[in-house]
Design goal:
heterodimer, A: about 180 residues, alpha+beta, Chemotaxis protein chec, 8-stranded antiparallel sheet, B: alpha/beta, 5 helices
Chain lengths: ~180, ~130
């Protein structure tokens, strides 16, 4: 797991920086929509071991009180497995339905995470997903003030979820 | 229960299939599902296909779910037909907007079969 935050941000926005919120969001989506028990894989390398088979990346934009992205990334093989669990259909290639499904998984993870962070729940909107698939591309995210990136998996399926946000100085500290 | 005609509005084809499957798993064995990928498509569908229930997402291109609901009511299409919003936009403000626009329920994604059974099926019995 990689988490890049300042000490002050962890003190003023603990829910934002807490990877447990991202874990809970991923576990909820996998449990309720895919029917699988998915866990964070501690200390897993973020680089995917199946890159040679092609990658699928879904990006959801976060806007409003913060600006940022939620990025879901996995191998083509993992994408087909994930969407197969969700749709109840076997896939042999990354077609539009697989891309659509990965976009929707990213959308639900982003929404679930956003709803667990009190500072964001009411004032942060989500974009429709953009999905990129194939070989030989790099995803560059502008250096932002906050980044949280974790690897998850079930059986032999692996994927990563990254949240990156800017605009945090405008974000009011959460008070209970 | 006789055949229930449902319009499922979501820009994700996978999610439309999941919603349909969830309705069947929740107990709607006799189901005729129509699909639309945004609010504008849904309005066109409703001009020719009467339905008993509408399930719609909010975040969609072309016409989002809230605008679809407003147009649905202003054009008096599907009068009395219950509308349930199923969306990741689960903030209280969004829920208030959806209910103000005429939605009966607001179900956040991800959702469970139990939520569909508890929230959606009773609407068909009272419609």
């Amino acid at each position: 797991m990689e988490c890049t935050t300042s000490q002050s941000l962890r003190e003023t926005h603990p829910a934002l920086c807490d990877p447990k919120n991202l874990d809970a969001s991923v576990e909820e989506v996998c449990s309720m929509m895919l029917g699988v028990s998915c866990k964070r894989i501690p200390d897993a390398p973020i680089a995917d071991a199946h890159r040679e088979q092609g990658m699928v990346t879904a990006v959801i934009g976060l806007g409003g009180v913060v600006s940022g992205t939620c990025v879901f990334r996995c191998s083509a093989r993992a994408a087909m497995r994930l969407v197969a669990c969700m749709a109840g259909t076997v896939f042999t290639e990354v077609d539009e339905m697989v891309e659509d499904g990965i976009g929707e998984i990213c959308n639900m993870v982003a929404g679930s995470w956003r709803n667990r962070v009190p500072e964001l729940a009411a004032h942060c909107g989500l974009s429709v997903p953009a999905v990129v698939s194939g070989n030989g591309y790099n995803l560059h995210l502008q250096a932002l003030e906050f980044q949280l990136q974790c690897a998850y998996g079930f059986e032999d399926v692996r994927f990563t979820v990254a949240i990156a946000c800017g605009g945090l100085p405008q974000l009011k500290p959460h008070t209970k | 229960m006789s055949e229930v005609r449902v319009l499922i509005v979501d820009d994700s084809s996978v999610m439309r299939k999941i919603v349909e499957r969830s309705l069947r798993q929740a107990g709607l064995d006799s189901l005729l599902a129509y699909e639309a990928s945004n609010g504008a498509d849904a309005l066109e569908t409703l001009k020719s296909k009467p339905v008993d229930l509408i399930l719609t997402d909010i975040n969609m291109p072309s016409m989002d779910g809230l605008e679809f609901l407003r147009q649905l009511r202003s054009q008096d299409l599907a009068p009395g037909v219950p509308v349930v919003m199923i969306t990741t936009e689960a903030s209280l403000d969004r829920a208030k907007q959806a209910l103000a626009a005429g939605a009966q329920y607001f179900i956040p994604k991800p959702f469970s079969i139990e939520q569909i059974r508890a929230r959606v099926l009773p609407l068909l019995k009272t419609a």
